[in-house]
Amino acid sequence: MDALVVLVLGLSCLFLFSLWRQSSGMGRRGRLPPGPTPLPLIGNILQIDFKDISKSLTNLSKVYGPVFTLYFDMKPTVVVHGYRAVKEALEDFGDEFSGRSISPVFERTNKGYGIVSSNGKKWKEMRRFSLMTLRNFGMGKRSIEERVQEEACCLVEELRGTNDSPCDPTFILGCAPSNVICSIIFKNRFDYKDQNFLNFIGKFNENFRILNTLWMQIYSAFPGIMKHLPGNHKKLFNNIADIHSFILMKVKEHQETLDINNPRDFIDCFLIKMEQEKQNQQSEFVIENLVVSANDLFVAGTETTSTTLRYGLLLLLKHPEVTAKVQEEIESVIGRHRRPCMQDRSRMPYTDATVHEIQRFIDLIPNNLPRAATCNIRFRDYFIPKGTNLIASLTSLLHDSKEFPNPEKFDPGHFLDESGHLKKSDFFLPFSTGKRACVGEGLARMELFLFLTTILQNFKLKSLLDPEDIDIVPVASGFTRVPPLYQLCFIPV
Ligand code: LZ1
């Protein structure tokens, strides 16, 4: 048979199969939510602008309502959009939608271990352990807060080294959050010029770039073929192998110096758990889970916090009147002569509101991380079979125009009441909500508050442009929103 016949036969079978898949959902068991008609093989990709997925989802919700279905890779994805549908899916159906849908890339790198790409019992135990360990005193004597304060201090010294000259803050603001994770996992931070540190974070940064390329979209669609071909994805897998062996080497060092009564960091806490559970054949506390969980904490805790800080400074340059009020509050509550701490936050409503507004405005992860149905679900009037993917639009909450009038305007007033107190909002869910809500939320919010206040306590931010000329429109990207490139000067106060 020649290749053309095989191709035509293959495509026809796939076409019939996809028709059958669509119609089988319409039977006696109920049906999936409505949505645009999918084409064979390509599903609904023509309905999505991959430069701004979140906006496409908002437009589709105007046609199909707050709960709708899209097809990618021959599989249905249910989208929930708007406060009620998102809360209902992630909170009221918390267990039912607590699965993670795992892309072929992460399936291959994480093999179901760790926190981000695991499911079932493994996920429950790794999540629980990580939440406990990331609490402020979860790791013995040195609190998380102390580790972040130490890093904030080093960050200020590094910024001082720029000597008032214009700089792109990307590199330095990327080092600080990575180093906080280093301090939590490996016990100590590194110098920003340490070659081991630069190699290690360089591999994460390179992977982050590769994951946002078209190559990886193709890999995700056709993993069976792609994994035999040369290309960027090989670099990605090599980097992950290097990262894993670096972590493993650190684990070996820890094993040799472990003191069960004095855990120094995340690795020690995990090794102690391994020791406690060594009789248990089914224990999840095995080296693979330690290595992948550590890797997960870097992936989750570095680029996210660093992008928020970088975007935050850009917004402060654009709005000098906001920056001035924050600096006034720092001056009156903290002063110049001691370092900021978390206790200060409740006495600094304007600063707290500004950090909230930075997170709301930038909408870092607009479409959340994808979830999956852990069982067959009856949701509203629909039937959602086990394994169906779920996307919750976080944009639809963070940019809701009733809750946050003029949502496209940066204004800390969105989180302040008439008397200047912090006004919380149920719509503020940048870390998602429910059983899969971000494990690092507490850590991330601590870093944002301490890093931003420490920077503004020590420096005046000087822009190279007039505020009106500063561009704050995100460079739309696959997964996170990224600010445009910019430069600024840090002038010591
Ligand atoms: C994550 C993020 C990105 C990728 C994986 C996990 N947690 C952001 N927070």
Describe the structure.
The chain is an alpha+beta fold and 493 residues long. It is 50% helix and 7% strand. It has 18 helices and nine strands. It has helices at residues 3-24, 53-64, 83-92, 104-110, 120-133, 144-160, 170-186, 195-211, 214-221, 223-226, 232-257, 266-276, 287-301, 303-318, 320-333, 349-362, 395-398, 441-458, and strands at residues 67-72, 75-80, 99-100, 371-372, 377-379, 382-384, 389-392, 459-463, 488-492. The strands form three sheets. A five-stranded mixed beta sheet has the order 1-2-7-4-3. A two-stranded antiparallel ribbon has the order 5-6. Strands 8-9 form a two-stranded antiparallel ribbon. β1 and β2 form a beta hairpin. α14 (303-318) crosses α16 and α14 (303-318) crosses α18. The structure holds 1H-indazole (LZ1). The site of 1H-indazole has 6 residues, from α13.
